[in-house]
Write a structure and sequence with these properties.
heterodimer; A: 224 residues; alpha+beta; B: 225 residues
Chain lengths: 224, 225
């Protein structure tokens, strides 16, 4: 049976790009469908009726939603480039930090960039505390996955690329080289790595403009 | 790695926590002996603060000196380490993805909707009841699809999604018995009503989820506060 892999995503979404990064690292052919989040397609709603969100991977007619669940599925289904470590403790560690990024870092960073102005200082302090955990976790490693890009690097694509976009769009700087030398190094290595750099969204300015239009020009905007 | 000495495996937790229950059930399925270190509600031990510095929460599994946090991550770790025991996650990648999807739903959407339903009043309670009921209807559908007529989400034996949801519904069953609400409804969610009984009666679960009377005691105490 000919294999059919479909991906429903949005060009500027880190969650959607995670799945593309994994598929490309594994060398899997897929058909991509760009969704308009203001006008979701009936197909997307059929494949993800519970959350109605992207990304959704459809493999031979079977849909899978939630980016981290999709990444696990991709690694288990297609051999070749291993995304997860082999050791159970290292796997648990990768899953722990991946959950931390999505559940704590993303909202924390968002809050620091676009939260209430009077809470801004506290929000920045909290976001930096969260980033400190990642600074400690990357340590002296080239990638979170060790010598090669792994699951946690892919999930951390938000930190690797979108954090910079958020910072530019909102005017709030969080990831400074002085405070986060190791994480800053990782960002540089990550965005220039083969398998990643080709899969980052193009049109940086367009992306910055998009986030500004969605969330405003930031908590520190003096003209507000 | 078939057997470890009891001191090799420790669980930091508190018996009423459904998240802690998940870990203990998983260890029971694998017949792994462990030391249960109960945290006192209201204070956090040095060991907890050291072994889970990021969240400072239970459960934590300590295995051979290494600590693992977050209950569903711990359950997957248990499944992978004690691989010679009965498997917790199904073997097919798609089935695994479905169970992971619904387990995430339980944690991200369903469990939060359950919060404070016991002590809520009036309109707020009605809204909470509606939300929980909607979630249960979705989970009923998932159960019918996953179980394919068998007793559990995992089929003939308890699996990952059974473990994820079981303790939550174990508590919900007690809330229903308190009266005033009927969340687990034989008409809307017949499969789940039967499933929660089977789950709580299972050998790996008995002793981890106490009898309904003991759960009622705790609920009454909470309501009294």
């Amino acid at each position: 049976m000919a294999e059919e892999v479909l991906l429903f995503g949005v060009w500027g979404s880190p969650f959607s790009r995670r799945v593309e990064m994994a598929l490309k690292l594994k060398g899997i052919q897929y058909k991509y469908f760009e969704e308009d989040l203001t006008n979701k397609s009936p197909t997307l709603l059929k494949y993800n009726p519970i959350h109605k969100k992207i990304p959704v991977l459809v493999h031979n007619g079977k849909p899978i939603a939630e980016s981290q669940v999709i990444l696990e599925y991709i690694d288990e289904t297609w051999k070749g480039y291993p995304i997860f470590p082999k050791d159970p403790y290292e796997r648990a560690n990768a899953r722990f930090w991946a959950k931390f990024i999505d559940e704590k870092c993303l909202p924390g960073i968002f809050n620091a960039c676009w939260g209430e102005e009077k809470q801004h200082e506290n929000a920045v302090k909290e976001a930096c505390e969260l980033l400190k955990h990642l600074e400690n976790e990357i340590g002296e490693k080239k990638y979170f996955g060790g010598e090669a890009i792994g699951f946690l690097d892919i999930v951390a694509n938000f930190i690797g690329f979108w954090l910079g976009i958020f910072e530019e769009a909102s005017g709030t700087k969080l990831l400074t080289r002085e405070e986060f030398p190791k994480l800053s190094n990782w960002v540089g290595v990550f965005v220039s790595s083969s398998g990643i750099k080709e899969n980052l969204p193009p049109a940086r300015d367009k992306l910055i403009a998009y986030f500004r239009s969605q969330f405003g020009t930031g908590s520190t905007d003096a003209t507000k | 790695m078939a057997n470890s000495s009891c001191s090799d495996v420790k669980v930091l937790g508190a018996w009423p926590s459904p998240f802690v229950m998940r870990v203990r059930i998983a260890l029971n399925i694998k017949s792994v002996k462990y030391e249960f270190l109960e945290e006192t509600i209201g204070s956090k031990s040095q060991l907890l603060l050291q072994s889970n510095p990021v969240y400072k929460k239970i459960p934590v599994l300590i295995h051979g000196g290494k600590s693992i946090s977050e209950s569903l991550i711990i359950v997957q770790y248990i499944d992978e380490v004690w691989s010679s025991g009965p498997s917790i996650l199904p073997s097919d990648p798609y089935d695994r993805a479905i169970e992971r999807f619904w387990a995430a739903y339980v944690d991200d959407k369903f469990f939060p909707s359950m919060q404070l339903i016991n002590t809520a009043q009036g309109e707020e309670k009605a809204a909470k009841v509606e939300q929980v009921t909607e979630g249960l209807v979705l989970l009923e559908e998932a159960f019918q699809k996953s179980s394919k007529g068998k007793a559990f989400f995992g089929g003939d034996r308890i699996g990952f999604l059974d473990i994820a949801l079981g303790p939550m519904l174990g508590w919900l069953r007690a809330i229903d018995k308190m009266g005033g609400v009927k969340l687990l409804d034989e008409v809307k969610t017949p499969g789940l009503v039967q499933w929660v009984e089977s789950f709580c009666a299972d050998g790996a679960v008995k002793g981890v989820i106490p009898d309904i009377e003991k759960l009622l005691e705790i609920l009454e105490k909470m309501k009294g506060n």
